[in-house]
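User: For my dataset I need records formatted as: sequence, then structure tokens, nothing else. Please produce one.
Assistant:
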Amino acid sequence: MAKETKRHLFGASAKKRIELIPVVGIGEVERGQNLGKLIIDACAKMRFKIQDRDIIVVTHKVVSKAEGRVLELAKVTPSKFALKAGRHIKKDPRHVEVVLSEARRLVKMVRGLILAETSHGFVCANAGVDQSNVKRGMVVLLPRKPDISARKIRDEIRKTLGREVAVIISDTFGRPWREGQTDVAIGLSGIDPFRDYRGMKDQYGYELAASVINVADELASAAELCMNKLDRNPVVIVRGYDYVTADISARVLARKPSRDLFR
């Protein structure tokens, strides 16, 4: 994108108000349900109209439930390694076994936690395997292909409502050197996840050389403020943010080993 085009977009977005609208009433999501339709129906009950260029942020939990990415721990047989690791970090070896099955690379195991790289390339706690917001004795896995999950929701909204939107699938990650967690994007459809300021000049005339902002993560994190872990609002609509439409995979958000200073 040319510098002048970027400057126009960035200047325009800075003057707009950004709204966060939680979509309420979706309820418990079951395997096989059409998430796009559930979102559309919930918005209709709210008498809320989805508009062109809205951004639909969906927590991965409901995506995983709809896609059947839920396991019952009682049906998991831990390996010898999982049994040993479970004793070492004081973690249910069945949970450890599921984490191992979802991990492409183990980073560290300590105090009930396994840091692992997922098949998507994300490094996160327990390879994304989570026991929150699911029935006791069950675990939720990350969607296998969250970009495709996002695209299906986007396509359903386009087909049913004729609206052009972007979709972000989010999850909650911890961060090195920072306490607390924040939501990040793990699946994308219809949005460029980066805002590139390189080559532009700041107010003092200095040319920016390294400023590439991950707006997809920022949008996911902002949406979480309306989701709240206990309020059962798995979908939030972000309105008013002037994003660039693009078909880019969320895999680009994972830093390549050659650029990772801490690997």
